[in-house]
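Sequence in, structure out. Go.
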Amino acid sequence: MKARLYKESKDLKTILKWWKECKTPVDFNYGKIFLSDTGIIISDKGKDICACWLVITNSDVCHLGWFIAERYHDKKEEALNYLIEVSKRFLRLHGYKYLTIYTENSGIENKLLKKGFVIGDENVKQLIGVL
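Output:
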């Protein structure tokens, strides 16, 4: 498996397709508004499998979010595990000490708990507003 940074010109079409297939309630056709260049994409044998985005701060804490994957790829679980490990390694190399992740996806939550994450908040919803 390989990890690389998200490039809008190359990857946006694939990401929008995945979000549409997952019936995400947010209109991600805005593309760059929600997706920065700090996304990480995991692929295997040239086929993209999953991605997430890093929300970089000027503190010791970074946020990881907007997880998305091709729904029926046979290596999706392996790729998501690799995505989490690559993200943690990248953030450690850049001096971050803590990582927060909000998810309602029990599969991702269980992967994180197995990797030593602890539950900080429960019953939290993300709200998105236009400024």
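Check: The beta strands are 2-5, 39-44, 47-55, 61-69, 98-101. The domain at 2-114 is CATH 3.40.630.30 (Aminopeptidase).
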